[in-house]
Amino acid sequence: MKLYTKGGDGGTTSLIGGERAAKFDIRVEAYGSVDELSAQTAMLRDRLAEAGIADFEEDLVTILRRLMAIESLLALGEGYEGDKVPDLSDEEIAEIERRIDAVSELLTPIRYFTLPGGHPLVSQAHICRTVCRRAERRACRAAAEYTVSARALTYLNRLSDYFYAVGRRLIDLLHVEETLWIP
C-alpha cells in the first residue's frame, strides 16, 4: 500500500465515510491539532522514559489511545452512520478525572499561576497542555458547525488539566524550583 493517494493534491481530504472536506475545514484543523497533541504526548513519554521516570507511563499510553479515538471522532463526515468509530465512554472521562485527582493530591497547594519551565520535561508537559487547549478550542469550533462528540470535548478539557498537574508534579520529582507568576 502506498502512503500517498494523490487525493489531497487539490486541497481536499477525505473524512471517514467518504465526504471530501477542504484541508482548512475546521474539522481537519481540529483533528490535526489532536494529532499534533499525540506527537507531543509521545515526546513527553519518550523523554520521561529517558529520564527514568515511569510515574506517568501507563497514563500516557492510555492517553495516546484516547487521542487516536478523538481524532477519528473529529474526522467523521456528516451523516456517517457506521459503527467503526465508537464514542468515548463516561468511564474514560471518569478515569482521566481520577488521574488528575491522584496527581494533584501530591502537589503543594499554590495561590498563583505557575510559569512553564525549570526543566525540559516540565516544559514538555506544558507544551502538551497548551497544544491540548488549542485542540479543544478547534474541536469546540467544529462542534459549532458539525456534530462532534460531547465526550471528546470533555476529555480534551480534562486532559489539559492533567498535563498541568503533571508539569507541577515533575517540578517535585526533578527537584527544580517552581516559578510562580505573582502580579
From TrEMBL:
Keywords: ATP-binding, Cobalamin biosynthesis, Nucleotide-binding, Transferase
EC number, UniProt record: 2.5.1.17
Metabolic or biological pathway, per its Swiss-Prot or TrEMBL entry: Cofactor biosynthesis; adenosylcobalamin biosynthesis; adenosylcobalamin from cob(II)yrinate a,c-diamide: step 2/7
One record GO biological process: cobalamin biosynthetic process
Domain Cobalamin adenosyltransferase-like: 3-168
Catalytic reactions of this protein: 2 cob(II)alamin + reduced [electron-transfer flavoprotein] + 2 ATP = 2 adenosylcob(III)alamin + 2 triphosphate + oxidized [electron-transfer flavoprotein] + 3 H(+); 2 cob(II)yrinate a,c diamide + reduced [electron-transfer flavoprotein] + 2 ATP = 2 adenosylcob(III)yrinate a,c-diamide + 2 triphosphate + oxidized [electron-transfer flavoprotein] + 3 H(+)
Record-annotated membrane-spanning stretches: none
A GO molecular-function annotation: ATP binding
Family per similarity comment: Belongs to the Cob(I)alamin adenosyltransferase family.
Protein name in UniProt: Corrinoid adenosyltransferase
